[in-house]
Amino acid sequence: DVLTMVYHDMCSVMVGNSLYWFLIGNFCGILEFNLDRQSLSVIHVPVDVDVNTCSITVIRAEGGGLGFLFLSDYCVQAWKWKTDCDGVASWVLERTVALDKLLSMNSEEGSQSPRILGFAEDNNVVLLWTFIGVFKVQFESLQFKKLLESYRFYCWFHYYPFEGVYTADGGIGGGPYGAKALHNM
C-alpha cells in the first residue's frame, strides 16, 4: 500500500481564491484549499499518473480556471476543469502538443523522455527538461525559449520559477535596494 500525499516535486498554484497541489499515491488527484471557506476538497484527474514514467503539474488554465499538464513521452496534454450549463464540473482536454515537433528534436536520439520541472503561474510558463536542453514553454501561444544546455541524462534538480516585479520609480520592490543595489552586490 502506498499512501496518498502531496507531490513534493511541484509547487502549489493559486487559481481564484484557492490553492491547488497535485496528489500521488493510491490515487492521483488535485487537492484544493479554498481560502474563503477554509475547506479542503479533492478533484480526481482523468488520466493514470505514474510519476516514474510521466510528468504532471497543476496550472492556471488558458482563459483562467484550474488546469493541469500531463506529459508522457513527447506528448503534452493540457486539461481544464470546466462547469457545464447544468453546474456539473468535469475535465476537458483542451490541447495536445507534440514536443518533439514543437522543439525540433529527434525523439529517437533521446535516452529519456522530457520532464516538467516547474510552472511559473504569473506568466503561465512551464519549465521543461529535455535531452537537448531546458526550455521555458508558454502553451497558450506555443512560444518557447531554450534556457540551458542539458546533460544527456535527467538529473533530479529542483527548480523554483521565480518571478519578480520591477517598478519604474524605485527598482525591484520599490525600496532603496532596487536594481542598481542588487547589481552592485
Q: Please report the number of helical segments.
A: 2
* Shape, per Cα inertia axes: globular
Number of extended strands: 15
H/E topology pattern:
EEEEEEEEEHEEEEEEH
CATH architecture type = 4 Propeller
| Structural class category | mainly beta
Can you give the mean pLDDT? 77
Range of strand content: over 45%
Give the biggest beta sheet.
5 strands, antiparallel
Distance between the termini: 51 Å
Describe this structure in words.
This protein is mainly β. It has one domain (5-183): 4 Propeller (Hemopexin). It contains two helices and 15 strands. It has helices at residues 99-102, 179-184; strands at residues 5-6, 13-15, 18-24, 29-34, 39-44, 54-60, 66-72, 75-83, 89-98, 115-120, 125-130, 133-138, 143-148, 166-167, 171-172. Strands 1, 2, 3, 4 and 5 form a five-stranded antiparallel β-sheet that branches. The protein has a four-stranded antiparallel β-sheet with strand order 6-7-8-9. A hairpin with a 3-residue loop joins strand 14 (166-167) and strand 15 (171-172). The longest helix is centred in the last third of the chain and has 6 residues, at 179-184. The termini are far apart. 22% of the residues are buried. Mean pLDDT is 77; it is low at 174-185. It holds the Pfam family Beta-prop_AT5G49610-like. InterPro entries: AT5G49610-like_b-prop (IPR056594). Residues 11-162 form the F-box protein AT5G49610-like beta-propeller domain.
